[in-house]
Amino acid sequence: MAHPAAPRRRLFALSAGLAAGALAAPHIARADDCTEDTLDRIRRTKTLNLGVRDGTPPYGWKDANGNYVGFATDIARGIHAAVSTALGTTIELTMTPVTGQTRTPLLQNNTIDIEIGATVITQARTQVTDFCVAHFLTATGVMVAADTPIKSLADLAGRRVGIPQTGIEDPAFRALNAKKVVNPPMRLVGFPDHPQAFTALQTGSVDAYCTDGPILYGLRGGKPEWRIFDAGINTFLQAFPIRPESSKFKHIVDVTITTLCANGGWLALYEKYFGPGSPTPYPMTDALKVLVAMNSWPTQ
Is 254:193 a contact under the CB 8 Å cutoff? Predict the structure, then answer.
């Protein structure tokens, strides 16, 4: 199913979201004792520890050979190369699978140095982590069986609706229930990861699964028995979380991402993982085009 172009409201929402991302960039006071810049830690340990997704295509997953691949994972390999160049030495790369529940604790206890995936920037999350420049922008989608009568948000009334635990859909959908935007209320069911949610949808344990649009396309994998539509409730930025007080490391990550946006590397990765010939076709939206343009920083 072709994904509709982002409506005009998305472009206004994008401007607001980019402003929120800019406000999140400065290092605000945190209730933690993190004082070592992540780049200094990498220099000392000679290791860059990535927190990666192993079941969230097209952002990150394990292929048939057990290798970590994906749009975000490939960006992370570029970050690794840039860190090695900046430090002038060979830096080992490790990959640790994370979920929405484990990503922040693993950052805080130094198991990982950066979480590579599709984490959304929120005001609450900036209280415990910093975010690098946004690498993607999307919206909440809804996946249902192709033959179901569910075609809009209103049709979810009274239905069993799967959502990611700790995801932004939880507070958003609870608010829709409380305000009776959807009435009778949706019966929300939280899942710790996307594959479990998709299994529940396949077995009929839930009537719909709601999360980031591209993730739904990745789970569907081109299977015609599943249909995806935009929930029409939001537009949000996705970025890599890092530990606070790590401006030197953040600078390297930001420059890596903005260089990819400026030199066509980002578009090449998009074509590889989201293009019409990929397992997860996801047509480019107007909002994404604006994000890439704004992230194409001049070199001087």
Answer: no
Q: Which sequence spans correspond to the domains of the chain?
A: 8-137+236-294, 140-230
CATH class of the structural domain 140-230: alpha beta
Tokens of 47: 């290791």
CB of 227 closer than 8 Å to CB of 144: yes
The DSSP code for 186 is P
pLDDT in tens, 157-191: 999 999 999 899 999 999 999 999 999 999 999 99
Structure tokens at 14: 């994008």
Helix (H) or strand (E) holding 226: strand 226-230
Alpha helices (H) in the chain, listed in sequence order = 8-24, 38-45, 71-87, 103-108, 169-178, 194-203, 213-220, 247-263, 265-274, 286-294
CATH topology of domain 8-137+236-294: D-Maltodextrin-Binding Protein; domain 2 (3.40.190)
| Tens of pLDDT, residues 40-58 | 999 999 999 999 999 999 9
Q: Give pTM, 2 decimals.
A: 0.84
Rounded CA-CA distance 256/260 in Å is 6
Q: Compute the distance between CA of residue 20 and CA of residue 257 in angstroms, rounded to an integer.
A: 18
